[in-house]
Specification:
Length: about 325
């Protein structure tokens, strides 16, 4: 049985905005400049791979009765929502195991978008992921506690709690996906200040990119996906299993072809309570076999993508952006 939901380190601090006072806010995020694909320096992956292919299992935990956030409700119905709570709990009872088995058969590691409360509620799952060589990155405390409206100090507290929880399993926290993708304008700077190296909160490119978090830190966006993501595919777009499979193959095939000229990233973001259902798991296995049938593919973790990019391409891209935009980059 999981332990009772533990108290959040979040206290009732007022919202702050130390970085971007309201009068100075740009019309866009201001975190990255425009970077057309035409003319970009070539990104090379290890082994001259065309595509860095990675899988992000979202191993989340939803609270039975989460705190109220005026900007977003975690469940589509009035809480307590028995249907939706128990559906998400399928992850830990059944779906997780199916996902792990299919990935392990093909020697594909996961980079886990982890609600770090899982470290307390389901530690055996976390130990199994570590034993398989999977990376853990933080998806916040619970997927029912959002960053919308959260003060900077409360955001820092969640980041520290994530570092502590993942550190107990022998891993360093390098990456981040804000719960339900609800970052504030300041979140990425707080992550960089805390020593994290990459974020998955941006959806603007098929390659990693430098993110401007100030002159004191180097920080990278690694492509995650809201398109190749089982929840939008199966539920927002109401796709049948064969349509999902066709879509995933088309995404991979196009990126593999384009990667012959300039390296690409494909992420498949999955949720075990969705993809781990009996009627979908065979399509997942078939898609993995399709990817594995190609020889110029690299199978890194998100941490390895960010590290390779930072070591081999970050400065090249920053210089190129500087030439393109003058002193903005």
């Amino acid at each position: 049985m999981p332990a009772p939901d533990s108290p959040s380190p979040i206290a009732g601090h007022p919202t702050e905005s130390a970085y971007l006072p309201p009068g100075a806010r740009p019309v866009d995020t201001g975190d990255y400049p425009y970077a057309p694909m035409r003319g970009r320096p070539r990104l090379r992956w290890p082994g001259d791979a065309r595509v860095a292919f990675w899988i992000a299992p979202n191993v989340e935990h939803y609270e039975w009765q989460p705190p109220v956030n005026p900007n977003r409700t975690p469940y589509p119905r009035t809480t307590p929502d028995v249907l939706n709570y128990s559906w998400r709990d399928y992850t830990h009872r059944v779906g997780f195991r199916r996902i792990v088995e299919e990935m392990a058969k093909r020697d594909i590691r996961g980079s886990v978008s982890l609600s770090v409360s899982v470290c307390d509620h389901f530690p055996d799952e976390v130990r199994q992921m570590c034993d398989l060589g999977w990376e853990l990155f933080s998806h916040g405390l619970y997927n029912t506690r959002y960053f919308y409206g959260m003060s900077l100090e409360d955001q820092r507290a969640v980041i520290r709690a994530s570092q502590e929880a993942i550190g107990r399993f022998g891993q360093r926290l390098d990456g981040w996906l804000t719960p339900a993708i609800t970052p504030s304008l300041e979140t990425q700077r707080l992550l960089a200040e805390a020593g994290l190296r990459y974020t998955l909160d941006y959806f603007h490119d098929d390659q990693p990119m430098p993110l401007d978090v100030g002159p004191d830190h180097r920080f990278v966006t690694v492509p995650y996906s809201i398109e190749m993501n089982d929840i939008p595919l199966a539920h927002w777009n109401n796709m049948a299993v064969d349509e999902m499979l066709t879509t995933l193959k088309a995404q991979f095939d196009r990126l593999y072809a384009e990667g012959a000229e300039n390296g690409r990233v494909m992420c498949f973001a999955i949720h075990p309570f969705v993809l781990g259902q009996p009627h979908r798991i065979d399509a997942f296995a078939e898609f993995l076999d399709h990817v594995k049938s190609h020889d110029q593919v690299w199978y890194p973790t998100a941490r390895e993508i960010a590290a390779h990019y930072e070591a081999t391409h970050y400065d090249t891209m920053t210089d190129w952006l500087g030439q393109l935009h003058g002193d903005r980059a």
